[in-house]
Design goal:
Layout: E1 12-14, E2 18-21, H1 25-37, H2 56-73, E3 78-87, E4 90-100, H3 102-105, E5 107-114, H4 123-138, E6 143-149, H5 153-161, E7 165-174, E8 177-187, H6 188-194, E9 200-202
Keywords: Transferase
InterPro entries: Acyl_CoA_acyltransferase, GNAT_dom, Ribosomal_N-acetyltransferase
Pfam families: Acetyltransf_3
Length: 213
Amino acid sequence: MITEHWPLFGLRLFTPRLELRVPSLDDLGQLAGVAATGVHDPDRQPFVVPWTDGSPAERARGTLQWHWGQWSAWSPAKWSIGLVTVLDGRVIGTQEMDARNFGVLREVGTGSWLGREFHGRGYGTEMRAAVLDLAFTGLGAEQATSEAFDDNAASYAVSRKLGYADDGIARHVVRGRAATGRRLRLDRAGWEAARTVEVRIEGLEPCLPMFGV
């Protein structure tokens, strides 16, 4: 079985409503379809790399290529795990977590998106809570970071709910214009104090060497 050689395919995270997992090819096909239908208001661009500005076909293809690229580039010193978010058997979005030199720094970053029809239902909070539990409980992380543009109120609401604190700003060029990103940071004490979402992790132990733990 492929999990003997790539144990990440056996990793599962469960919240009260969602399952997060490393996608199969069928999962990726569903995720590409969600990307094609749109993941945000076209008048706004919440991503530093404006991959959603392409056509539906380009968004779908880019989604596949991004995940395949992360698989091929994986090493314990630099990794990015992209999980599909599954609701009642249906892929509705993706939650990513990445790190460099995790074995020394014990720090992760996160990013995510959902199909537009699934916004505003609290799924973003559960998704982020799931990977934070993977980071802090499963991998022994000490810090987690996030960033969002000034106008991304929904992302800030999730971060505040989960215990993040302000950590400065970053300047970017998006669609040819300057944009200010607000950085946020979560330490273990803040995570423990704000922890409210129940998370269950399965299949982690054989994956630990891949994370540099």
